[in-house]
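quick one if you have a minute, typing this from the bus. theres a chain ive been looking at and ive put its sequence and its fold in C-alpha coordinate form underneath. please have a look and point out which stretches look like helix strand or loop to you. anything you notice is useful, everything is just below.

***
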Amino acid sequence: MARRPTVSQGRPLREIVIDTLRQNIVDGDYAPGDQLPTEPVLVSRFGYSRTVIREAIAALRADGLVDSRHGVGVFVIGPKRPNAELELFRQATDKISDIIEELELRIGVEVEAAGLSALRASPAQEAEILSLVDEFRTLVERGEPTDEADFAFHMAVAKATNNTRFQSFLEHIGKRIIPRVKFRTVMGGIDPLPNRDRLIMEEHEAVADAISQRDPEAAREAMRRHLQGGIKRYRALTRARTIDRTS
Protein backbone atom coordinates (compact mmCIF):
# COMPACT_ATOMS: atom_id res chain seq x y z
CA MET A 1 0.00 0.00 0.00
CA ALA A 2 1.33 3.45 -0.91
CA ARG A 3 2.78 5.33 2.02
CA ARG A 4 1.27 8.57 3.18
CA PRO A 5 3.45 11.69 2.95
CA THR A 6 5.65 12.75 5.82
CA VAL A 7 5.20 16.46 6.42
CA SER A 8 8.43 18.45 6.68
CA GLN A 9 7.98 22.01 7.87
CA GLY A 10 9.15 24.67 5.44
CA ARG A 11 9.29 22.42 2.38
CA PRO A 12 7.25 23.38 -0.68
CA LEU A 13 4.12 21.26 -0.88
CA ARG A 14 4.90 20.25 -4.44
CA GLU A 15 8.22 18.72 -3.36
CA ILE A 16 6.51 16.70 -0.65
CA VAL A 17 4.16 15.19 -3.25
CA ILE A 18 6.99 14.61 -5.73
CA ASP A 19 9.25 12.89 -3.20
CA THR A 20 6.42 10.76 -1.80
CA LEU A 21 5.20 9.54 -5.18
CA ARG A 22 8.75 8.98 -6.41
CA GLN A 23 9.47 6.84 -3.36
CA ASN A 24 6.21 4.94 -3.91
CA ILE A 25 7.39 4.12 -7.44
CA VAL A 26 10.92 3.16 -6.32
CA ASP A 27 9.49 0.96 -3.57
CA GLY A 28 7.21 -0.80 -6.03
CA ASP A 29 3.96 0.48 -4.54
CA TYR A 30 3.21 1.59 -8.09
CA ALA A 31 4.78 -0.75 -10.63
CA PRO A 32 5.55 0.06 -14.28
CA GLY A 33 2.26 0.06 -16.17
CA ASP A 34 0.17 0.86 -13.10
CA GLN A 35 -2.15 3.83 -13.25
CA LEU A 36 -1.59 6.44 -10.58
CA PRO A 37 -4.61 7.44 -8.49
CA THR A 38 -6.77 10.10 -10.10
CA GLU A 39 -6.24 13.76 -9.36
CA PRO A 40 -9.19 13.97 -6.91
CA VAL A 41 -7.87 10.93 -5.05
CA LEU A 42 -4.40 12.48 -4.76
CA VAL A 43 -5.91 15.77 -3.60
CA SER A 44 -7.75 13.85 -0.89
CA ARG A 45 -4.69 11.79 0.03
CA PHE A 46 -2.29 14.70 0.40
CA GLY A 47 -4.76 17.40 1.38
CA TYR A 48 -3.24 19.84 -1.09
CA SER A 49 -4.73 21.78 -4.00
CA ARG A 50 -5.18 20.51 -7.56
CA THR A 51 -2.47 22.94 -8.66
CA VAL A 52 0.10 21.37 -6.32
CA ILE A 53 -0.82 17.87 -7.51
CA ARG A 54 -0.62 18.87 -11.18
CA GLU A 55 2.80 20.50 -10.70
CA ALA A 56 4.07 17.37 -8.96
CA ILE A 57 2.81 15.10 -11.74
CA ALA A 58 4.42 17.40 -14.33
CA ALA A 59 7.75 17.11 -12.49
CA LEU A 60 7.49 13.31 -12.35
CA ARG A 61 6.69 13.28 -16.06
CA ALA A 62 9.75 15.46 -16.76
CA ASP A 63 11.83 12.96 -14.77
CA GLY A 64 10.55 10.14 -16.98
CA LEU A 65 8.80 8.34 -14.13
CA VAL A 66 5.24 8.67 -15.41
CA ASP A 67 3.43 9.29 -18.66
CA SER A 68 0.10 11.06 -19.12
CA ARG A 69 -2.40 9.60 -21.58
CA HIS A 70 -4.99 12.14 -22.60
CA GLY A 71 -8.44 11.19 -21.39
CA VAL A 72 -7.16 8.04 -19.70
CA GLY A 73 -4.86 8.93 -16.82
CA VAL A 74 -1.27 8.95 -15.59
CA PHE A 75 0.72 5.71 -15.82
CA VAL A 76 3.97 4.67 -14.21
CA ILE A 77 6.91 4.13 -16.54
CA GLY A 78 9.23 3.06 -13.74
CA PRO A 79 12.24 4.40 -11.87
CA LYS A 80 15.21 5.23 -14.03
CA ARG A 81 18.80 4.77 -13.00
CA PRO A 82 19.95 8.31 -12.28
CA ASN A 83 22.64 9.80 -14.42
CA ALA A 84 25.49 10.45 -11.97
CA GLU A 85 26.56 13.69 -13.63
CA LEU A 86 23.09 15.24 -13.68
CA GLU A 87 22.22 13.81 -10.28
CA LEU A 88 24.81 16.16 -8.82
CA PHE A 89 22.46 19.05 -9.60
CA ARG A 90 19.47 17.35 -8.02
CA GLN A 91 21.05 16.70 -4.63
CA ALA A 92 20.64 19.36 -1.97
CA THR A 93 24.00 20.63 -0.74
CA ASP A 94 25.55 23.16 1.60
CA LYS A 95 28.99 22.90 -0.04
CA ILE A 96 29.89 26.11 -1.81
CA SER A 97 32.34 24.20 -4.02
CA ASP A 98 29.40 22.18 -5.42
CA ILE A 99 27.49 25.35 -6.24
CA ILE A 100 30.47 26.92 -8.00
CA GLU A 101 31.13 23.80 -10.08
CA GLU A 102 27.50 23.63 -11.15
CA LEU A 103 27.46 27.32 -12.11
CA GLU A 104 30.58 26.75 -14.22
CA LEU A 105 28.84 23.91 -16.04
CA ARG A 106 25.71 26.01 -16.52
CA ILE A 107 27.85 28.70 -18.17
CA GLY A 108 28.80 26.17 -20.83
CA VAL A 109 25.15 25.45 -21.58
CA GLU A 110 23.16 28.58 -20.83
CA VAL A 111 25.50 31.12 -22.39
CA GLU A 112 25.04 29.45 -25.75
CA ALA A 113 21.31 29.08 -25.07
CA ALA A 114 21.04 32.84 -24.65
CA GLY A 115 22.87 33.43 -27.94
CA LEU A 116 20.66 30.99 -29.84
CA SER A 117 17.56 32.53 -28.28
CA ALA A 118 18.57 35.94 -29.61
CA LEU A 119 18.77 34.39 -33.08
CA ARG A 120 15.75 32.08 -32.99
CA ALA A 121 13.15 33.28 -30.48
CA SER A 122 9.67 33.69 -31.90
CA PRO A 123 7.72 36.86 -31.03
CA ALA A 124 5.69 34.83 -28.53
CA GLN A 125 8.82 33.41 -26.90
CA GLU A 126 10.39 36.85 -26.72
CA ALA A 127 7.22 38.19 -25.10
CA GLU A 128 7.31 35.36 -22.53
CA ILE A 129 10.91 36.14 -21.59
CA LEU A 130 10.09 39.84 -21.15
CA SER A 131 6.95 39.07 -19.15
CA LEU A 132 8.95 36.86 -16.79
CA VAL A 133 11.35 39.73 -16.18
CA ASP A 134 8.32 41.88 -15.30
CA GLU A 135 7.00 39.14 -13.01
CA PHE A 136 10.37 38.89 -11.26
CA ARG A 137 10.39 42.67 -10.78
CA THR A 138 6.89 42.61 -9.28
CA LEU A 139 7.88 39.89 -6.82
CA VAL A 140 10.98 41.85 -5.79
CA GLU A 141 8.92 44.99 -5.20
CA ARG A 142 6.47 43.01 -3.07
CA GLY A 143 9.24 41.27 -1.16
CA GLU A 144 7.92 37.86 -2.21
CA PRO A 145 9.95 34.70 -3.05
CA THR A 146 11.51 34.69 -6.52
CA ASP A 147 12.72 31.07 -6.83
CA GLU A 148 9.96 29.95 -9.21
CA ALA A 149 10.26 33.09 -11.35
CA ASP A 150 14.04 32.70 -11.49
CA PHE A 151 13.80 29.13 -12.78
CA ALA A 152 10.95 30.04 -15.17
CA PHE A 153 13.13 32.75 -16.74
CA HIS A 154 15.99 30.36 -17.43
CA MET A 155 13.54 27.79 -18.80
CA ALA A 156 12.01 30.41 -21.12
CA VAL A 157 15.45 31.28 -22.51
CA ALA A 158 16.16 27.57 -23.04
CA LYS A 159 12.82 27.09 -24.83
CA ALA A 160 13.50 30.07 -27.08
CA THR A 161 16.54 28.30 -28.56
CA ASN A 162 13.97 26.08 -30.31
CA ASN A 163 16.38 23.25 -29.60
CA THR A 164 14.57 20.88 -27.25
CA ARG A 165 17.84 19.57 -25.82
CA PHE A 166 18.41 22.81 -23.92
CA GLN A 167 14.91 22.68 -22.48
CA SER A 168 15.23 18.99 -21.58
CA PHE A 169 18.53 19.65 -19.82
CA LEU A 170 17.00 22.24 -17.49
CA GLU A 171 13.79 20.26 -17.01
CA HIS A 172 15.79 17.20 -15.95
CA ILE A 173 17.78 19.18 -13.43
CA GLY A 174 14.78 21.09 -12.12
CA LYS A 175 14.53 24.10 -9.86
CA ARG A 176 17.56 23.07 -7.86
CA ILE A 177 19.78 24.66 -10.48
CA ILE A 178 19.00 27.79 -8.45
CA PRO A 179 21.77 27.75 -5.79
CA ARG A 180 19.78 29.34 -2.96
CA VAL A 181 17.12 26.64 -3.33
CA LYS A 182 19.72 23.98 -2.55
CA PHE A 183 21.14 25.82 0.41
CA ARG A 184 17.75 26.46 1.98
CA THR A 185 16.83 22.79 1.59
CA VAL A 186 19.64 21.64 3.87
CA MET A 187 20.04 24.70 6.12
CA GLY A 188 16.56 25.00 7.59
CA GLY A 189 15.39 27.65 5.16
CA ILE A 190 18.47 29.84 5.61
CA ASP A 191 20.19 31.43 2.62
CA PRO A 192 23.83 32.18 3.53
CA LEU A 193 24.05 35.17 1.20
CA PRO A 194 22.31 38.52 1.65
CA ASN A 195 19.24 39.04 -0.51
CA ARG A 196 20.39 39.76 -4.08
CA ASP A 197 17.04 39.69 -5.87
CA ARG A 198 17.46 43.19 -7.27
CA LEU A 199 20.88 42.36 -8.68
CA ILE A 200 19.54 39.13 -10.23
CA MET A 201 16.61 41.10 -11.64
CA GLU A 202 18.99 43.53 -13.35
CA GLU A 203 21.03 40.62 -14.75
CA HIS A 204 17.88 38.99 -16.12
CA GLU A 205 16.87 42.31 -17.68
CA ALA A 206 20.21 42.53 -19.49
CA VAL A 207 19.78 39.02 -20.94
CA ALA A 208 16.19 39.72 -21.98
CA ASP A 209 17.07 43.07 -23.57
CA ALA A 210 19.84 41.50 -25.66
CA ILE A 211 17.51 38.73 -26.82
CA SER A 212 14.83 41.30 -27.67
CA GLN A 213 17.41 43.28 -29.66
CA ARG A 214 18.39 40.11 -31.55
CA ASP A 215 22.01 40.51 -30.48
CA PRO A 216 23.42 37.00 -29.84
CA GLU A 217 26.84 38.14 -28.65
CA ALA A 218 25.33 40.60 -26.19
CA ALA A 219 22.93 37.90 -24.99
CA ARG A 220 25.79 35.46 -24.44
CA GLU A 221 27.80 38.07 -22.57
CA ALA A 222 24.83 39.07 -20.39
CA MET A 223 24.14 35.45 -19.43
CA ARG A 224 27.85 34.88 -18.78
CA ARG A 225 27.96 37.91 -16.47
CA HIS A 226 24.84 36.67 -14.69
CA LEU A 227 26.22 33.20 -13.95
CA GLN A 228 29.75 34.42 -13.24
CA GLY A 229 28.22 36.93 -10.84
CA GLY A 230 26.83 33.98 -8.89
CA ILE A 231 30.27 32.37 -8.83
CA LYS A 232 31.85 35.57 -7.52
CA ARG A 233 29.22 35.92 -4.80
CA TYR A 234 29.76 32.37 -3.56
CA ARG A 235 33.54 32.65 -3.74
CA ALA A 236 33.30 35.79 -1.61
CA LEU A 237 31.23 33.79 0.88
CA THR A 238 33.95 31.11 0.96
CA ARG A 239 36.58 33.72 1.75
CA ALA A 240 34.40 35.24 4.47
CA ARG A 241 33.90 31.83 6.11
CA THR A 242 37.65 31.14 5.97
CA ILE A 243 38.37 34.45 7.70
CA ASP A 244 35.78 33.70 10.39
CA ARG A 245 37.35 30.29 11.10
CA THR A 246 40.86 31.71 11.40
CA SER A 247 40.01 34.82 13.40
In short: Residues 13-76 form a domain with the Arc Repressor Mutant, subunit A fold (CATH 1.10.10.10).
